[in-house]
Amino acid sequence: MQRIDFELRGEFVTLDNLLKATGLAGSGGAAKAMVAEGLVQVDGRDELRKTCKIRAGQVVSVHGARVRVIAPAAEGDQNL
Fold first, then answer.
1. Is this prediction's pTM over 0.90?
2. Suppose 30 and one of 6, 25, 62, 71 were both cysteines; which one would form an S-S bond, judging by CB atoms 3.0 to 4.6 Å apart?
3. What gap in Å lies between CA 79 and CA 47, rounded to an integer?
4. pLDDT per residue over 57-76, tens digit each?
């Protein structure tokens, strides 16, 4: 299973944008279709809301891939 860590740039990312940003969907339309077809799970449960808010700590699974969403790095951490 492919494992991907995705660092948020804000408080949340919508599910369709997450699938597109991680390359699991080729386009926004493809991402929305994947969700509508019931191919995506959030925290182990089927998710049918295309634009549901995904926050740090949540895990999205699709097509043998698992995306772990992590909090954005604090500004002071960038220099480490």
1. no
2. 25
3. 37
4. 999 999 899 999 999 887 65
